Each structure stands twice: as C-alpha cells, then as structure tokens.
Automatic annotation (TrEMBL), chain A:
CDD domains: TM_PBP2 (cd06261). It is a multi-pass membrane protein. Belongs to the binding-protein-dependent transport system permease family. Pfam families: BPD_transp_1. InterPro entries: MetI-like (IPR000515), MetI-like_sf (IPR035906). This is Carbohydrate ABC transporter permease. The lineage of its organism: Bacteria, Bacillati, Actinomycetota, Actinomycetes, Streptosporangiales. It is found in: Cell membrane. It comes from Nocardiopsis tropica.
Automatic annotation (TrEMBL), chain B:
It is found in: Cell membrane. Residues 1-22 have a biased composition (Low complexity). It comes from the Bacteria. Gene3D superfamilies: MetI-like (1.10.3720.10). It comes from Nocardiopsis tropica. This is Sugar ABC transporter permease. Residues 96-309 form the ABC transmembrane type-1 domain. Pfam families: BPD_transp_1. The chain crosses the membrane at residues 37-64, 100-121, 133-151, 181-205, 226-248, 291-312. Belongs to the binding-protein-dependent transport system permease family. It is a multi-pass membrane protein. SUPFAM superfamilies: MetI-like (SSF161098). Residues 1-30 are annotated as: Disordered. Keywords: Cell membrane, Membrane, Transmembrane, Transmembrane helix, Transport.
C-alpha cells in the first residue's frame, strides 16, 4: 500500500487495478460473512416454515409463511414460554446488579486505595479469572444444598454480588486507573470520604465500564447453561436455556419448527443487546481480551 | 494475557511507589490506616466470595477428591482411590482424548482464521465496523443452547448441510450421529466463533507503527516477507494472549456437546467432553468424590498447559521493550 501512494504519477490503469482489487476484497468479505451468518438467517426463516419444509428447503424464503411455530412452541412445555423468559430475566437482572455493585467496589479498592496485601490479593483476583467453574462446582453445590438454596435463583445471583467474576473487576480497575487522579485528590482535600468519592466521582465517570459490565453480564448470564442446569431442578424455576434443553429432549422430528421458533426467541435479546451495545463490546474485548 | 501481565507489573510498581515516597506530617500514619480500613471495607464482598465461592470451594474439592461422597450421608476418606480409578476408567480416557483433539484442532484453526481476517480488515477496508460486527456476532451466540440446537439440525441426517450437498448430488452422512464426524461438527462450531480473537488481533495490528512497513517496503521487502518479519513478530504478544485464552476456554466446553449429544456424549462417547463426563459423574451419578478428583485433574491440565505456554513464550513471543 505504501508503495502505491508514493508513486507520483498514478496511471489510470493502476488505479483501475486497485479499484478491482478493492472490489474483489469486498466481494470476498461479503461472501464469507454470508456463509457465516447463513445458518442464523436460515434458522430465522425456518422458524416461519412448516416443519416438513425445514427438512427439504435450504433456501431463505419460506414457501409457506406461518407464525404457527411460535404459538405452538410457546405452549409446548409445561409452562408457557414467557414463564421461562421471566425466570431468565430475574436471574439476569440480579446478576447485573450483583456484578455492578460487587465488582465496582472491589475495583475501586484495587485501583485507588493503598492497603496491606494489595499485590497478593490482586494476583489472587487475576488467578480466579482463569479458574474453571467446573473445579469449584461440587463444593458450591454442597454448600448451597446445605443452605437450602438448590432450585432457587440465589446460587446464580449471590456469587455475583460477592464479586466472583474477577474479569469485571479487572475491566473496571483498568478503566478507573485511566481516570485523572486530580479529581479525587481535590475531593479528598475538600474532606470527602472514600464512600463519597466512590459514589460521586468514580462511579459517574466509570459509566462506560459499568455499561460494558452490564452488557457482558447480560449476554453471558442469558446464555449460561451449565450452572443453571445444575442449580435449577424443577420446571417452574427453569430459565430459557434449561427449558430449551428439555424441549430438545422431549421433541421428535416433527417439532423442529416450534423448537427453532423458541430458539429464535431465546437468541433475540442477545442480538438486541449486541446491536445496542456494540461499541462497548468491541472496546471491552479489545482492552481485556475475553469473549 | 499480555494486558493482564502489564497490569500486574503496573500494580507492583504502584505498590512500590508509596513506600518510597517520603511521608510528611503527622497525619500520614492515621490516614494510611484509614485507607487500609476503607479498602478492606470495599473489598468485603470480594473476600466473602473468595472464601465461600472461589478459593474455599477450590480447596474443599481437593479434600472431597480423597473421599467417597454421594451427598446423602457422610463422606468417607478413601485416600487416593479416586485418582487410582482414573487409570482404569476407559470413559475418562476417551473423554481426555476427545477434549484434547477438540482443543488442539479447533483452537489453531480458529486463531488462523481470526488472524487472516483481521489482516484483510486492517488494510483500511471501507465498512470495517460492519464487517467486524458481522464476524463477531457468532462469538456472542456460539455458546448458547439455541445455537447448539441449530447445529444439531444443520449437521443432522436431513439437515441443512445434507440438503445443500444433495443439491450437488452428494449423499451426506448424519454428521452429528456418526462417531467419526460428531466431534468435527463441534470443532466447526468453535472455529465459527473466531470473531472474538479477531477483534483482539485487529486491536493489535493497529498498534504496529506504519513506518515499519514503509521502511521495509523501501528496502524492497514483499508482502510475504513483511508478514513474517514485521506483522508476526510484532503480533506475538497478542497471538500468545489469544492462544492461552482460547485453550483455557476450549478445555471448558460443555453446552454444545451436551445439547448435540442429548447429554450422553454420544455417539459412542465421541463427543464426551471432559466437563460433560464430570457432570455425568457428579450430577448424574452423584459420585461427588470422583467428580472432585476429575475437577482437579482438569485444573492441573489447564494449569499445566498455561504454564507451558508461559514458559515457551520466552522463546517466541517478542515484547517490544
């Protein structure tokens, strides 16, 4: 590229070649993008096809357009689907609040305060980011069973309030470190305590990091299957992923249409948050690097 | 990891700074004490979580791994029995094999694709944000039950893939129900989620100063030479970071295998991922002792690979400073 721009006399032939190449790159990128997205688009279109058509039509336009899959899928399980959507919403809302509160408090301490053991605790916190949940799930289950919390939302929400998602602490520490220190120094000279500095200076300035945290928490919790499968045991407590799983297990070949319809419903909110929060998502993974 | 490491280093420096700063005035000591207290106050939830949710259970699962425990009744100390059992457990061996194949095939493919597309997009392509979003989307959805359901249909006997193949007159297999191909469909699924590492690569490519390329071009270096002598060395910290991260992630894959195989890990244990087998032992058979031992084996494997990665990184990762 550099050589091309330094060439003083740009012949029209070369310009044409460059334009053709650029066009080819775009065609390649669009084609590849379409292949990537094709399964998703096809699932969306298939959710409006009668099941028999799903198994013989790889095309995107339904021959027979019917919303029947949605009405059928909505009531196919023991509870209507909005019951599971509501359960998921409760778990997600609790998790978001938990992460925002717990992680921002810890992050403020790590980013702005000096205390004994800071280095060690920070290292421990980073290590917990890598800790697979599978390694701690058995004792957690035993603990929550002792507390009588199995088949409630508490095992899914309370850990978030206890700042166990180290990733978000790290994300916020990164962000808070980037804020100018003059502001809290000034506030301190004016006699502000740490609690007020936290609430009135750091938190309002950290809104982008809080938004990133909220969006990632939403998507991860909404999609999370493993812990919801383990801690939620009766159908009235099922969240969307667990309900979908029972749907797969119970359905025969004939109900792929409703199954697709409910899968689309399950993916919808994630897609919505993705559209609304792209900026934060891209920045979030670029600075900290986790999907 | 590079970001994490740099942060760690920065934290260490910050830590050293106040100690060397001359303390003036009488208020220094009480202020430091107050700050200590305030810090522990802000960290209180995190400490409780560390004890009860993360580090505590980590140690507890080590203890349980030496016991026989089925949730009902007492746990009984059995020494290393659970670990000895692993040597003769054929299903554990196939779980390890399946997981290793998955990790070491899907992660390199995923990263290669991520890097290739990041490089194409980095050349000032118009509409970059749109392309980036489109390619990134599968990363957000890939781990969900709904996508696993879709995969089950797409790679099923009468699924989308075979419909397309049928169009060309090829009779396809029932990919998810064939022991030789089922794992392959899950590898494809993981490669499909290359968008997250791609975004990280893109951010990394932005950091490489354009003058390096200009200088190399002036010296007559072609695109291939520029790739190997500038892009790759400058990008090694990011490649390393993505590699460590994606390996750790891939070892923990659960949902896709669970849904595609209906929770069995079938056909013929060909999708019996380590975490899936752990789930079956722990929460199907309530063999908590053995499941804990498996959990520690997983931790050792992931920890081991991460450590090897870090050690090996000295020889191939190039840090500019």
């Amino acid at each position: 590229m550099a050589t091309e721009t330094t060439a003083p006399a740009t012949s029209t032939r070369r310009l044409g070649a460059r334009r053709t190449r650029r066009l080819l790159v775009h065609i390649g990128l669009i084609g590849f993008g379409l292949i990537m997205l094709y399964p998703l688009l096809w699932m969306l279109s298939s959710s409006f096809k009668p099941t028999a058509e799903i198994f013989r039509a790889p095309g995107l336009i339904p021959e027979t357009f019917t919303p029947g899959n949605y009405t059928e899928g909505w009531t196919a399980l023991q509870f209507p689907f909005h019951h599971y959507l509501l359960n998921s919403a409760v778990v997600v809302a609790g998790s978001i609040i938990g992460n925002l509160v717990g992680c921002s408090m810890a992050a403020y301490a790590f980013a702005r305060l000096e205390f004994r053991g800071k280095r060690l605790f920070f290292a421990v916190m980073l290590a917990t980011i890598m800790l697979p949940i599978h390694v701690v799930i058995v004792p957690q289950y035993i603990l929550f069973a002792e507390l009588g919390w199995i088949n409630t939302f508490l095992p899914l929400i309370v850990p978030k309030l206890l700042a166990t998602d180290g990733f978000f602490i790290f994300l916020m520490v990164q962000f808070i470190r980037g804020l100018p220190k003059d502001l809290d120094e000034a506030a301190r000279i004016d006699g502000c305590g740490h609690v007020r500095i936290f609430f009135q200076i750091i938190m309002p300035l950290s809104l982008p990091a809080l938004a990133t945290t909220a969006i990632f928490t939403f998507i991860w919790t909404w999609n999370d299957f493993f812990s919801q499968l383990i801690f939620l045991t009766s159908p009235d407590m099922y969240t969307v992923p667990v309900a979908l799983r029972t749907f797969v297990d119970s359905s025969s070949q004939t109900s792929w249409g409703p199954l697709f319809a409910m899968s689309v419903v399950a993916l919808g909110p994630v897609f919505g948050f993705f559209l609304a929060g792209q900026r934060y998502l891209v920045k979030g993974i670029a600075t900290t690097g986790i999907k | 990891m590079s970001a994490l490491l740099q942060r760690g280093r920065a934290a260490a420096q910050d830590q050293a700074a106040p100690a060397s700063r001359p303390r003036s005035g009488k208020s220094a000591a009480p202020r430091a004490k107050r700050e200590n207290l305030a810090a522990y106050g802000f960290l209180a939830p995190w400490f409780i979580g560390l004890v009860f949710i993360t580090a505590g259970p980590l140690l507890a699962s080590l203890y349980f791994s030496f016991t026989d425990y089925n949730l009902i009744g007492d746990h009984e100390w059995v020494g290393a029995e659970n670990y000895e059992r692993m040597f003769t457990d054929a299903r554990l061996h196939s779980a390890l094999r399946v997981t290793f194949v998955y990790v070491f095939v899907s992660v390199p493919l995923q990263l290669a694709l991520a890097l290739a597309l990041a490089m194409v997009l980095d050349r000032g392509v118009r509409g970059l944000p749109l392309y980036r979003s489109v390619y990134y989307l599968p990363s957000l959805l890939g781990g969900s039950v709904a996508i696993a359901i879709l995969w089950r249909q797409v790679f099923g006997a009468e699924g989308l893939i075979n419909q397309v193949l049928g169009f060309f007159g090829i009779q396809g297999e029932g990919w998810v129900s064939h022991p030789d191909y089922a794992l392959g469909t899950l590898i494809v699924l993981n490669v499909w989620t290359f968008g997250a590492p791609m975004v990280i690569f893109l951010a990394g490519l932005r950091q490489i100063p354009a003058m390096y390329y200009e200088a190399a071009s002036v010296d007559g270096a072609g695109p291939v030479s520029r790739f190997w002598n500038i892009t790759v060395p400058m990008l090694t910290p990011i490649i390393f970071f993505n590699l460590v991260l994606q390996i750790i992630n891939a070892f923990q894959t659960f949902t896709q295998a669970f849904i595609v195989s209906g929770g069995t890990g079938g056909p013929s244990d060909s999708t019996l991922f380590f975490t899936l087998y752990l789930y079956q032992r722990g929460f199907g058979a309530f063999d908590m002792g053995y499941a804990s031992a498996m959990a520690w084996l997983l931790l050792m494997i992931i920890g081991g690979f991460t450590a090897v990665n870090f050690l090996a990184s000295k020889y191939w990762v190039f840090y500019g400073d």
